[in-house]
Design brief:
The chain is mainly α. The protein is built from six helices and two strands, in the order αααββααα.
């Protein structure tokens, strides 16, 4: 059996068989004959290689797998595109979340400013009410003072002037009467 026939029978490359022959050259040298450019293996060499090749890693090339490989590559490419889309969507959602979080913080700050302004306005209203009460009290006092002054004036106008008042030109107090 030739090296090529053996490789075809085992479903491996001729290079793999040649590598095994080089590795076990000492054991197989008397069991390999040359016919032209082809190497012939006797039964011992075939049995020996069968023992060694079964434990070795064998690469089997099956032409029917090409279509499956192409299909898997296309599916892989599609999944890769979907992954990119999902990642972009995730980044957009994350960006939107951060924007909403910033907006919520801005609204919270605005709320705190409004609450502070409301407290200041309430304090101003309280101060204005207090000032209005004080102004009302002053107004009542001024009205009372005015009423007393008018009463004095009426009494002064109602009485006759004394001799001294006529000569000096000064009025004396009405309260002294």
């Amino acid at each position: 059996m030739t090296v090529t026939e053996y490789a075809t029978l085992k479903g491996i490359s001729t290079q793999a068989v040649s590598n095994h022959l080089k590795r076990y050259k000492r054991e197989l040298s008397s069991h390999i004959k040359m016919r032209g450019r082809s190497r012939l293996l006797d039964e011992f060499a075939v049995d020996f290689l069968n023992e060694k090749v079964t434990g070795a890693r064998i690469t089997v090339y099956d032409g029917t797998k090409d279509e499956e490989i192409k299909q898997l590559q296309a599916e892989n490419k599609e999944l890769h595109q979907r992954l990119i889309t999902v990642q972009q969507d995730y980044l957009q959602v994350q960006k939107d979340f951060l924007n909403e979080k910033d907006r919520a913080n801005e609204l919270e700050q605005a709320k705190l400013r409004i609450e502070g302004a409301a407290e200041q306005a309430a304090e101003k209203v309280k101060n204005l009410e207090s000032a209005a009460e004080q102004a009302g009290a002053k107004l009542e006092q001024a009205e009372a003072d005015r009423d007393r002054a008018e009463g004095k004036m009426e009494r002064l106008q109602a009485r006759r002037l004394t001799f001294k008042e006529r000569i000096t030109g000064r009025l004396q107090s009405v309260d002294a009467e």
